[in-house]
Structure formats: C-alpha cells, structure tokens
Amino acid sequence: MKKLFTSTNSAEAGLLKSRLEEAGIACEMRNEFVAQVVPGMAFDPEVWVLDDAQYEEAKELLAAWQTPVPPAE
How far apart, in Å, are the Cα atoms of 10 and each of 23, 51, 70? Predict the structure, then answer.
C-alpha cells in the first residue's frame, strides 16, 4: 500500500479516488473526517493505492488528471 495523493480539499481527494476506482485501481481515502473529530489539528485527506503493482498506473492517471486541458479553439 502506497500513498498517492494528499489534499486540503476532501472533494478533490474523493474525485481522484472515484477516477482510480473507475480505472480498476483499488484505493482508499484516509483522514477524510479526522479534522472534524479533532478540531485544531491539521489532517489532510489522503488517497492510498492498495496494490503496489498498480501504483505506477495510478501515478500516470494522477498526472493526467492534474494536467490542465488547453481551451478549445
């Protein structure tokens, strides 16, 4: 299991998790609700890839997801 992504925005982490799952990559979110339970502590949501063999594919999907799409001409 490897951590792929951390964000201060749980919606962003959730969207990435959904995209990975659609691609058949098993993953989970961590720290999604910790900040609500422990006020004042900084816990950012994380996305973890469960199968190390899928980590490189997940990194490629993450890179493609983070690359801005140029506007259509």
Answer: 20, 22, 26
